[in-house]
């Protein structure tokens, strides 16, 4: 017997057999079409960040729980719901659960919401923004798969009229288990996004500097989907365009204004302006160190003989809100750069409603505007913005979309800033060429098309149309590299890595969630019973086969042939 | 698929072969090695079939379904009949009926292993529940019916004087894959309905085979008389 077995395995046919088996399986496997049992969602996690020791948002990103509907408050489950239900019902106690997940379906065409829905969506954002929870909270665009998953979950949650139906449901009903499938690593501890600094130099020593500052990251309750076109895509675009426009004046020594210009794209602005704080610290160190820096570290060399005359922070100037606000820590004195710039802006655009808003800064709470970081270190700074309030819902919203950006407004604001700054650094008369009020000719340093519409449009597409949250390492690195490469076409460019001091970003802004229909374990027992019954019938037939076939054959023979 | 589910499907796929071998009385006439002979015969035949397909129908995986090319392709299934014939006449011994059942069992078992075992093995990785595996496993019973019928008809075709009634039924057996595919595409049958159709088709073929067999028996009996 043993010999026979061994002989069998020596058989070369066995090898053929194995090969063949695999071939047949591969060919056959692809033909089998079946019901859909697995659905995949591209889901975006709601924000998670830490500022001065306090954690906000959703603390978890792993999901591997059975799905339930919104009504059930069960631990270790995935609550699957739609955004309207979240708005309608009181979900405060949901966030108190210690383990589990929430999946909220949002409309897939955020761009096309009507005004009512838009308002409702902002309400949802505000509701979610307050959330602090241990659950993994995801949102995903609504689609056909989503509706089938939701209806399955609803069916399961419905109450049944009779106990028997309930029992049947508990034995055979589909349950849906939702699992996060991408294993994206958390951000490494040494993760540092870059500040990008572009510089136009006057070529002379000890000239004052004007800095333009804009943070380039975006955020919202759902960082993975918010392109942040206005906040702060418009600022990034404005700085690039200002660099392009003003660099022309620095091309030849004869036209060079007696000011250095810095264009600083700061990282992690949405995390209490980490990039700005980092740059200021580096700058002050460079000044205090007393010029002793070797040539290898370019980054500091820039700051050697710089004195910041004014830092102009730009945020959200791409939307027409009926005003342009200049924000300062305190009312600037008559002869300060800020006051002069303000007067110039008003004179250049008398039709525009330009207001000066001064608000005392707080040293303890988080800064609401970028200039406050400069003010804390006693450096003159202002923020230009069209937003009337720092808590404006449009500032950090998913709905801050490129399609809602007013390009003409953005271009006119860029032009206004360029003119104002040029007038200031070239020391042109504030009130125009003539003090006589009867002279009304328009005077401009810039040609009509100096602010190039095409170029601005291109910058918006490149820098203000995609989500770039600081937690998304890839997006952040790519935007920084792109900024550096574009800016290097107009001036010197430096990079410096930003460390996080009083805050911390978290990764995993998006994930793939797989919903699978599974049956309860009891159901397998039911199937096993079925299999057993089937095989018993088979056994019965097999044991009687000889007799019955012979019987049939003789019957047929007699009756037909 | 859970482990339990895998066991269920496995039992459903392979237990019928075991039961038929063990309890139909065939084990008294022939050893299990003869069945394995038949399995090896299946392997070699499939190899020949694949070679033919690769030679004459190189563009095997075109999109869509059209009757004529599929029919030509399934003509390669005639190789099955030739292989089975060689197996029955040269490698198995004993009474004709014993050869038929042993050959059919071994052949069918090899077919089932090739079509289901690895599929189940690979499918066991997914956690989602799907009826697909149960359906695939249930199909193995109808395949068993069909293959034993095929063996019976192949045995008779060279030994019967009235081939006219055997050939149509043999064609039914041989082109079963083609029929399944055509029906599946024209009536878009999937899942349970396709399974039911396959079971009905196999059962019909098996019954017709019994009829043909009895006709054959009566004619030989008359000859002896």
Describe the structure.
The complex is a heterodimer of chains A (561) and B (225). By secondary structure, chain A is an alpha/beta fold. Chain A folds into three domains: 1-33; 38-186 and 511-519, no CATH class; 194-434 and 444-499, Aminopeptidase, CATH 3.40.630. Chain A has 16 helices and 19 strands. In chain A, strands 15-14-16-13-11-12-10-17 form an eight-stranded mixed β-sheet, with helices on both faces. In chain A, helix 7 crosses helix 12 (407-425), helix 7 packs across helix 13 (453-463) and helix 10 packs across helix 12 (407-425). Chain B has 225 residues and is an all-alpha fold. Chain B is built from nine helices and no strands. At the A-B interface, helix 2, strand 19, helix 15 and helix 16 of A face helix 1, helix 2, helix 5, helix 6 and helix 9 of B.
What is the count of helical runs of chain B? 9
User: How would you sum up the global shape of chain B?
Assistant: globular
- Radius of gyration of chain B in whole Å, from Cα? 18 Å
CATH topology of the largest domain in chain A: Aminopeptidase
Number of E-state strands of chain B: 0
Low-confidence stretches of chain A: 24-35, 288-303
- How many strands, what sense, and barrel or not for the largest sheet of chain B? none
The strand count of chain A comes to 19
**What pair of chains forms the biggest interface?**
A-B, 49 and 54 residues
Q: What integer value in Å does the Rg of chain A equal?
A: 34 Å
Order of helices and strands of chain B: HHHHHHHHH
- The total domain count of chain A is 3
Low-confidence stretches of chain B: none
Shape of chain A: elongated
Oligomer state of the chains in this structure: heterodimer
Q: Mind describing the biggest β-sheet of chain A?
A: 8 strands, mixed
CATH level-4 homologous superfamily of the largest domain in chain A: Zn peptidases
